[in-house]
Design a protein that fits this description.
It contains 9 helices and 9 strands. The protein is an alpha/beta fold. It folds into 2 domains: 95 residues, Glycerate kinase, domain 1 (Rossmann fold, 3-Layer(aba) Sandwich); 170 residues, HUPs (Rossmann fold, 3-Layer(aba) Sandwich). A 9-stranded mixed sheet has the order 2-1-3-4-9-8-5-6-7, sandwiched between helices.
Length: 265
């Protein structure tokens, strides 16, 4: 027998709390909802030993469904030790029933920590999972070599490694009895993700948090997705010492190989 999901629900404004309640009733039936203030939610975010299974935060978005990247609340979400489900309200986009869970991966062990979280949510909500990796050729091939056929062998190598990593991820989550598939997209990272994700998707992503040396929040793929893609999104700060990793996984990362290669050169 599955135990009830413990949820802590807070809203940026009192009138937005009904959206969170509606979500819990329709998508998390039987969950134990604890209504809390923003300050109480912030305390839960800072507590890695929190007894809550999921934090839900309802925010007011602009007419395009975007959030302010400089918002204190957004920054708090990016450093949360507990997974936070961000729901957004804006006039042109009502809340839709969820159809699938989308997990963007980049090959890093940080991103891979979203996999068990997505699996747990998928089993709760009885939803399929879709993994996606984005390969941006402009981040791999220097502009001077864009039209060099030999240079594109790097892209093919990266595609093959990405395909291997996605297969490993699928196998991990399939063991939990979750329906799963994956895709590789070529193009700018966030624009490609935005074209794939719609309002019926629940996005699950892990973030480096403030501990990633040299990485500013505005450079974070996770934060750019959170503020610009108008879909429900679960964000969690990855553990720096998580045992969840695949050997050789970083070979297809959005960030690590490029930085490693530039340093080596």
């Amino acid at each position: 027998m599955t135990s009830s999901l413990k949820v802590c629900l807070a809203a940026e404004r009192p009138e937005l709390e009904a959206i969170g309640v509606q979500f819990c009733v329709s998508m998390l039936p039987g969950s134990l909802v604890d209504h809390c203030s923003l300050s109480e939610l912030a305390e839960c975010m800072d507590n890695a030993d929190s007894t809550q299974d999921l934090l839900i935060l309802v925010l007011q978005a602009d007419e395009d469904g975007h959030l302010s990247p400089g918002s204190t609340i957004v920054q708090s979400v990016m450093t949360s030790s507990v997974p936070v489900l961000v729901l957004r309200h804006h006039e042109n986009q009502p809340l839709h029933p969820l159809q699938r869970i989308v997990v963007p991966l980049d090959g890093s062990t940080t991103a891979s920590q979203a996999i068990p979280v997505a699996s747990r949510i998928a089993r709760r909500l009885h939803l399929p999972v879709h993994f996606v990796m984005v390969i941006d050729p402009s981040r791999v091939i220097p502009p001077a070599y864009t039209y060099d056929p030999d240079a594109w062998s790097m892209i093919e190598d990266l595609r093959e490694t990405s395909h291997w990593a996605l297969q490993q991820s699928e196998e991990l989550i399939r063991r939990d009895g979750v329906q799963v598939d994956s895709s590789i997209i070529f193009g700018p990272i966030n624009a490609s993700l935005a074209s794939l994700i719609d309002s019926t998707d629940l996005v699950v992503m892990a973030t480096h948090g403030p501990h990633r040396e040299g990485l500013r929040y505005r450079d974070s793929v996770t934060q750019r997705a959170l503020v610009s893609i108008p879909a429900p999104m679960v964000v969690m700060q990855a553990s720096r010492h998580s045992p969840f990793a695949n050997e050789g996984y970083a070979a297809c990362s959005w960030i690590e190989p490029l930085q490693t290669r530039s340093v080596a050169n």
